[in-house]
Specification:
The chain is α/β, with parallel strands linked by helices. The chain contains 18 helices and six strands. It folds into four domains: 147 residues, no CATH class; 154 residues, no CATH class; 86 residues, no CATH class; 114 residues, Type I PLP-dependent aspartate aminotransferase-like (Major domain) (Aspartate Aminotransferase, domain 2, 3-Layer(aba) Sandwich), CATH 3.40.640. Helices cover 53% and strands 7% of the residues. The strands form two sheets. A four-stranded parallel sheet has the order 4-3-5-6, sandwiched between helices. Strands 1-2 form a two-stranded antiparallel sheet. The radius of gyration is 39 Å and the shape is extended.
């Protein structure tokens, strides 16, 4: 290695250490300084055998910082005194430590003067001035290096994938699993070529996305059999659906739908993780990881409790992918209904506000036509299950109460204004329920439900009975260490159409036993994580067992 290359390598190494491990950089600088001293003493001892200039240039290395690497080295002749080393506290190391002991020639016209000056050093939020020794050029280079390293680039923040990207990548991965099956079967046959373009198209799509690895096309790996690939593809598709619903639930802002979406996302990512055990992959899937990270962040930020499938010892069943797909489709249908409902509500509220504004701006006119249009909008809102005492109705029509015409037939408007006048509380008004409760009511009307867990509350029983138009509500209270047997007989009753268990108010063994009782009796089981008001019960029923509910008869 040439002198220049060796000096540059040594200087770069010290500079790197000064940025990462200042204490190690100081030790290295001192070591090189000692080596230089040994070489000087060796030259002095063997001065009877002088070295020629080319040999010295190749043998004796100028040990220095980057500031000294560019200094030309004259022909060595006689030992020189060593320049002072770094001045300052021994625990402080500059950005480019100057090792001041170098092999210098006999003083002559080419010798560069050595001086001492201060170089700025920034460690964290602290700025120091460090005295260093060297030539004017060396000190200038050291100051430039200090400026370059005084403001290091911040470390990049951790990046988490957008949940929508998880959806896109999972769809491509599902397609890749399915594409491999006919491609592999046709290998070595005349039909093989027709399966190549679809594979190339999928690889191109994956390449256009960040970190989308289609592992099924990786060469020299034993891929799973066809049945396993079908199962893995189904679980990828479920995770894609769940990711899409999770993203939409953020937009809608409906708490019951949001809870349903994150719970199904937890199940989908867990099922995918388990299904990939039958592959050659030794690392977790990027999208399963991203979905889990998303759930961790969302549950902490929104204070959501997810009971199942967030631990390695509580895995989802990848063989149950059809059931999960059905529940995802049911939730997607509820999303569509809710989105359509909100769209209608916004449209009719906008119409109502528009005509109310016209009436308010024309106080001397009857504006009966505008009142009739307001009545039409109010009737449509009531039909959309918007309660007649909704504040948006009251706040819009209240300011124009005095302009209401006497002769016009405006039953909904007059009802809104009568409530505005009294400002009745929601408790005093007739109880109204959401579309979710109405939908579940259509399945349960005239039947019975069993509710397990906690202490029986008659007033809550009455609300559940009224909301779902039930013949009976059987509330089974179980002690913490008591047997689960008292819940079995009520579940077996033929009129019971649904079983609710309050998982936070029942023991772990009770949950398992009641699930077994319901399964053996062929009754849908709904695990309720929080609360037992009719809205919460309906939301959980539609999320978990909508596909098992059947319209009520009679």
């Amino acid at each position: 290695m040439s002198t220049d290359n060796f000096a540059a390598a040594a200087a770069d190494f010290i500079k790197l250490l000064s940025n990462q491990r200042p204490e190690l950089a100081l030790a290295t600088a001192r070591l090189l300084e000692s080596v230089a001293g040994v070489i000087r003493e060796s030259i002095a001892t063997h001065d009877s055998q002088p070295l020629d200039a080319p040999g010295a240039a190749q043998t004796l290395v100028p040990l220095s910082s980057p500031a000294l690497a560019d200094v030309a080295m004259p022909t060595p002749a006689a030992p020189a005194t060593r320049a002072p080393a770094i001045v300052g506290p021994p625990s402080v190391v500059g950005p480019t430590p100057v090792v001041a002991s170098i092999l210098t020639p006999t003083p002559g016209p080419k010798t560069l003067p050595v001086t001492t000056a201060f170089v700025p050093l920034k460690l964290g939020d602290t700025s120091l001035q460090i005295a260093v020794a060297g030539t004017t050029a060396e000190i200038g280079q050291a100051r430039l290096a200090a400026q370059a390293t005084a403001h290091p680039e911040p470390a990049p923040a951790p990046r988490y994938d957008d949940i929508a990207l998880v959806e896109t990548r999972c769809e491509i991965k599902a397609q890749s699993c399915l594409a491999l099956i006919p491609r592999r079967a046709a290998a070595g046959t005349p039909d093989e070529d027709q399966y190549v373009p679809p594979v190339r198209a999928l690889l191109a799509k994956a390449k256009a996305l960040p970190e989308c690895f289609l592992w099924v096309f990786f060469p020299d790996r034993a891929q799973p059999d066809d049945a396993t690939l079908h199962r893995i593809a189904a679980n990828y598709q479920n995770l894609a659906k769940a990711a899409r619903l999770a993203a939409r639930s953020e937009e809608l802002g409906q708490r019951p739908l949001r809870l349903g979406a994150v719970e199904l996302l937890a199940e989908a990512q867990s099922a995918l993780r388990v299904s990939l055990r039958d592959t050659w992959l030794y690392n977790s899937d990027r999208d399963q990881d991203a979905a889990f990270t998303y759930l961790n962040q969302a549950t902490k930020r929104e204070e959501i409790f997810i009971e199942r499938y967030m631990r390695l010892d509580d895995p989802a069943d990848p063989l149950d992918h059809q059931n999960l797909a059905s529940r995802l489709d049911d939730l997607a249908h509820r999303f569509e209904n809710e989105a359509a409902h909100e769209k209608d509500v916004r449209k009719f509220l906008s119409k109502l506000k528009h005509h109310a504004r016209i009436i308010a701006n024309n106080p001397d006119e009857s504006r009966e036509e505008d009142w009739l249009k307001i009545e039409s909008a109010a009737a449509s809102l009531v039909q959309s299950h918007l309660h007649i005492s909704d504040p948006r109705l009251l706040d819009t029509l209240g300011p124009i109460r005095d302009q209401l015409p006497e002769l016009a037939s405006l039953p909904n408007v007059r009802q809104v204004l009568s409530r505005d006048a009294a400002r009745e509380t929601p408790e005093a008004a007739p109880r109204e329920y959401s579309a979710d409760v109405v939908r579940v009511r259509n399945h349960l009307r005239g039947g019975a439900v069993v509710l397990v867990g906690g202490e029986r509350r008659p007033e809550a029983e009455n609300r559940i009975r009224e909301a779902f138009d039930l013949r009976d509500v059987v509330w089974v209270s179980l002690g913490e260490h008591a047997s689960s047997a008292p819940a079995q007989a009520p579940i077996l009753r033929p009129e019971v159409r649904l079983v609710f268990i309050l998982i936070k108010l029942a023991g772990h063994q009770h949950v398992e036993d009641v699930a077994r009782f319901a399964r053996e009796a062929g009754k849908p089981l709904v695990r309720v994580p929080a609360g037992y008001n009719p809205e919460q019960l309906a939301a959980q029923a539609l999320t978990q067992v909508a596909h098992q509910l059947h319209p009520a008869h009679g």
